[in-house]
Amino acid sequence: MDALTLHRLHFAFTITFHYLFPQLTMGLALLILVLKTMGLRTGNEHYHHAARFWAKIFAVNFAMGVVTGIPMEFQFGTNWSRFSKAAGGVIGQTLAMEGVFSFFLESSFLGVFLYGEKRLSPKAHWFAAFLVFLGSWLSGFFIIATDAWMQHPTGYVLGPHGEIVLSNFAALFTNPWLFWQYAHNMTGSVVTASFVMASTGAFYLLTKSHEEYGRTFVRTGVIAGVISTTLMAFPTGDGQAKNIALHQPPTLAAMEGLFHTENGAPLAILGQPDVEHQRLDNPLVLPNALSFLTYQRWHAEVRGLDAFAPERWPDNIPLLYYSYHIMIGLGTILSGVMVLGALALGLGRLYTLRPLLWLVMLMAPFPYIATTAGWITAEVGRQPWLIYGVMRTATGASARVSAGNTLFTLIGFMGIYTVLAMLFLLLIYREVEEGPEHAV
Amino acid sequence: METLWFCLVAFLLAGYVVLDGFDLGCGVAHLLIARTDAERQSVLRAIGPVWDGNEVWLLAAGGTLYFAFPALYAGAFSGFYLPLMIVLWLLILRGISIEFRNHIRSLVWQPLWDVVFASSSGLLAIFFGAALGNVVRGVPLDGQGEFFLPLWTDFTAGPNAGILDWYTVLVAVAALCAVTLHGALWLGLKAPGKLEARARRLASVVWWPTLATVIAITFASFHIQPHLRASFEAHPWFDVFPLIAVLGLAAVQVLNTRRRTLGAFLGSCVFLLGMLASVAAGLFPYVLPATGDPRLGLTVFNSAAPHYGLQVGLYWFIPGMLLTFGYFTYTYRSFTGKVE
Ligand code: HDD
Ligand code: HEM
Ligand code: HEM
Question: Of the candidates A149, A147, A374, which has an alpha carbon nearest to the alpha carbon of residue A255?
Answer without folding.
Answer: A374
